Amino acid sequence: MHSIVIFASGRGSNARAIIDHFKTNGNARVALIVSNKADAGVIAVAEEERIPFLVIGKKTFGETLLVEQLMEYKPSLLVLAGFLWKVPDSLIKTFPEKIINIHPALLPLYGGKGMYGHHVHNAVLNARDAESGITIHYVNEVYDSGNIILQARCPVNSGDTADSLAERIHKLEHFYYPRVIEYLLGQ
Q1: Catalytic residue (one of 2, 21, 103, 137)
Q2: Cα–Cα distances in Å, from 120 out to 15, 103, 145?
């Protein structure tokens, strides 16, 4: 049985999709949820699902104690699901090619520091792009520049708002992210 650690900063919709997927696809389980916000919705998801969770501060992120805590769960993958902090080198070196992220755009477009959520969707709309999508990629030392695992696309419709585009992007995320995790764990 594979062990997954999810890092999230928000409401936890991707975490929920991953948890639900592995309830019926039994080769993995979410063993721990880590958040940088004590009031994040993902904490309620963890409590509801009886999954241990850890709230971290900026000073402890990447410290030896956190790495040791993560190692206790023997993670096959660290999965960033709307986690807004840059992953420190110590974690990248400890878990090489075992940290993945999902980005709400077709990288290399609209990536980097500060490019998340509505910031990304507004940039896509302002550029009048014909399509947007998601990118699932490995995490390295530079924001949103790790090797791409999968990209999925959706049209940008005339009259789209950041919210309407986000809704279609979330559907892609919730469908593809659990399946990519399952694929990576099956290799």
Answers
A1: 103
A2: 20, 9, 16
Pick the range with the lowest mean pLDDT from 7-11, 58-62, 163-167. 58-62
Residue written as tokens 């769960």?
73
Contacts 24+ apart (CB under 8 A), 65-74: 66/91, 67/91, 67/94, 70/5, 70/32, 70/34, 70/94, 70/95, 73/3, 73/5, 73/31, 73/32, 74/3
Cα 124 from Cα 128, distance rounded (Å): 6
Known active-site residue 137: no
Instruction: Please give the CATH superfamily to which domain 2-186 belongs.
Output: Formyl transferase, N-terminal domain (3.40.50.170)
**Residue 150 φ then ψ, to 5°:** -155, 145
8-state DSSP, 170: H
Check: CB of residue 81 under 8 Å from CB of residue 102.
Answer: yes
- Count of Cβ atoms closer than 10 Å to residue 121 Cβ: 25
For residue 56, give the nearest of 101, 96, 6, 16 by alpha carbon. 6
Q: What percent of the chain has pLDDT over 70?
A: 99
How buried is residue 26: exposed, middle or buried, by Cβ count under 10 Å (0-12/13-18/19+)?
exposed
Phi, psi angle pair for 127, to nearest 5°: -80, -10
